[in-house]
Predict the structure.
Amino acid sequence: MPLDEQILRAHLADGPFQSGVDLKKWQLVSIDWPYVLISVSAAVREGWPVAYGFRFECSNYPDTAVTAQPWDLERNAPLDPGKWPGGKNRVPKVFRPDWKAGQCLYLPCDRISIDGHTDWHRLHPHLIWKPTSDITLYLNEIYDLLNSSDYTGPRSA
Amino acid sequence: MEEKHEMEVFLQGPGMARLALIKVPADGKVQDLIEIAKEKGLKLEDGQTPQVWMEDKDDPLTPDQPLKIAGIQSRSRVQVHTCPRIHVTVNFQSRSEDHPFSPVATIRTIKQWADKKYGLSEVDASEYALQVCGMSDRPADDIQVGSLVQPGQCQVCFDLVAKQRVEG
């Protein structure tokens, strides 16, 4: 088993990730290296999904940041843009189907999105990936957005 | 996965790099958690005796008590610490409020206290986060305040900061 996968699996078994599982923030769906499927809980109202799936690409973890895209866990395919999370202010800035053709979230901790955004190191230092980071840095931010007052359900709602 | 004679416990303490999920003999004692915390990097000042605190309990646990008698169950959340209370300061705009919390109090608990103290509505509260004073760290809500304190100190300071949009 490659070292990056070993480390990721160790982090998934460790305190920060398991604490989130215990608190029903997220749960591991599957690992098909370098892809990891994780479901993240969202605020619930009638007609809104209880959770959203995300496919993380974790090559060279944790030296390199992960990248994640919304994922349809039933179809095992990218999530239809109309079903992406919507919101008033912070949420739509992160969940942008128009950004990189929906391949990733617009977040400083995302490997693809941080490229070319050097000011994010100054503006959002708490979200910058470091080799000492673990996947819960990314997961906690997704969970926070999907459970904030800014979130307004799926875009098509 | 737990074997029948072992129990998993979430353990935190000052100097421990991250929240640890540890295994402890189910028939063990409270003081066993202190020894495990030391192995995981718990930092102590000379002469200080740590105690074990459990979330949702106000008083420290008795060290020689069996874990089950003490109320420790599978995936209980505990803190090993020397401070009986952590003096927490939260700054917001031009104000500053203080309160002594148990070392096992979580960021979630402190945030709820701060939201109430500063009169933030539920809607507004979700748009603010606790950030350690003078740093960029925003601890996750399941982190216990004792883990954030420097060894030998019993105080910590937070700024209540607005969550910014990611733009550019």
